[in-house]
Amino acid sequence: MSKKILVACGTAIATATVVATKIKDLLRENKIKAEISQCKSFEVKGKVNYQKYDLIVSTTKVSGEVTEGETRTINGVPILNGIPYLTGMKKDILDQDILKILKGI
Asked: N or C end of the chain, less CB within 10 A?
């Protein structure tokens, strides 16, 4: 079964493309099938209202997100911070968090 991932940034151009590429590489290495879409951060709320996603990775705050402790969600879909894919700092942690969510661990 293929997973659905939404990658969001301010303009859905350069930053989201970099993050989406890193996620594709991670999933390929771990033999996980997924459909990855990109959008602007303000579009996330509308997209999750009409389509089921397993994960959202965003480089900025998402309109309508709920934060409880360190957990961010929107309509029950987990949101992870994609900045480590841009800076390289804590990239390994982000990789592991993505894999945990997609594998249901």
From this structure: N
Residues identified as active-site: 9
Average pLDDT, the chain: 94
Model pTM? 0.94
Report the number of secondary-structure helices (H) and strands (E) in the chain: 4, 6
Distance CA 2, CA 15 (A): 24
- Going along the chain from its start, the domains and CATH numbers come out as 3-103 (3.40.50.2300)
Give the position of tokens 């900025």. 60
Residue 105 in this model has a pLDDT that exceeds 60: no
Task: Specify the 3-state DSSP secondary structure of 40.
Answer: strand
